Amino acid sequence: MASSNNSGETVQALNGGSADLGNGKKQIFLNAFDMSTIGHLSPGQWKNPADKSATKRTLNYWIELAKLLEKGGFNALFLADTYGGYDTYEQSLDNCIRRAAQWPMTDPTIPITAMAAVTKNLSFAITASTSFEPPFLLAKRFSSLDHFTQGQFGWNIVTSWKKAAFKAIGLENPIEHDERYHQADEYLRVLYKLWEGSWAEDAISPDPANDSYADPDKIRTIKHQGKYYTLDSRHIVDPSPQRTPFLFQAGTSSAGSEFAATHAEGIFVSSHSPTVLKPKIEKIRELAAAKGRDPRSVKFFGTYTPILGRTEEEAQAKYEELKKYASTIGGLVLVSGWTGIDLSKVPLDQELTAADSVEQHKVRSMLDAFTTTSEHVPKWTPRVIAEKAAIGGLGPVGIGSAKTVADDMVRWIQEADLDGFNIGYVTTPGTFEDVVELLIPELRRRGIYPDLPKGDEQRTARERVYGEGQRRLREDHPGSVYKYDRYQEDAP
Description:
This protein is about 35% helix and about 15% strand. The chain is built from 15 helices and 13 strands. It has an eight-stranded parallel beta barrel with strand order 1-2-3-4-9-10-11-13, surrounded by five helices. It has a two-stranded antiparallel ribbon with strand order 5-6. Strands 7-8 form a two-stranded antiparallel ribbon. α8 links the parallel β10 and β11. The longest helix is centred in the middle third of the chain and has 21 residues. It is globular, with a radius of gyration of 22 Å.
């Protein structure tokens, strides 16, 4: 349990990695949270002259953002993604399109190498689904990205649930919720075999005299026969710096928690209250421990949207200005899709319950978040959701000076047992500029955020979380049993 000193700063270091900065205080990790779309978590801000979201279809947007995040010392840029639009609200896609509520959407994979070319100490993580492509193709693409970023690459593992996305690839209905996670578990084990078990470390041994570049006897053919996947192939890409990218996951349903406790190194969570979030985090840590993993090695990142000013008054004025551009319908479109509740059909002041979700396919952890009350939200109604969803979308919004917001973030770290945050933006790059100029210096002043690396130091995504030298999967991670020197093929 974290303790605190008089200024409210977290002082106990964690196990499971080098979270301690050497001063006895726990490091806070910050990831920038973006999406290759116009309206991410604050729909409507494209109308704001300060917002550059509509320029995301240019490489320059991503290059300049990466430079800014590198300058500030962000841990990573995390890019969400989705496959298909949100059509639960009014049973139509029209308002998703009209309000630019995560529509249109470009592929987050494409700009990664451009950003990696202009940065040295910024990691990148993207969302990709286990539902839509064979493991071999994803393994090839992600090994390539890990090479091109010099090991600063991570994957947010998701299972897909939208009807629109499945229809787009020719399937009528999504796979049932828990079944998706069983499928994803096998998917990951196929990937571990390719990434960890196919190539020996010394398989590449150039021998010009004998016209030999790599030794085929040191590249194992993976023969996998499972319930969902069959594979008979060597991995076509040589081992990348991390072999397996740093593994993120989002979702705290029962099946999602079980999957996360098995595979995830970082977990994205969101809630309006730390007291609601804490038992979910405790449960996943307990599950991880039961699987033989150090529970503190699983790092939790909470969604958090800061609205910062140099004074409290400046921050509040900024918030009032932002509200002028918010699209409440856009927010309702997103929440309707996440929860499976068509909020257009519910009276504005009627309290919502899980029973209002009549769609089979939805994000169960989101439904739980929007129907679990707390002292912060004693009653969820469409009116309350409309107010909260249009700015920040998923989680808490901190408004105030750097000191005020830092105090609030430390409170979340302590009360929910978080390890860091995914920083959502209201306007981009404005929110991120404020974090770099105001918030990170305040966190550094408190001794709970790392200084910029000195000299030529460069760490992989995994080393940035666990410490120098931990480039590959930890020994207590289940993927480690597939490493080349200990790999044994599973029975069919």
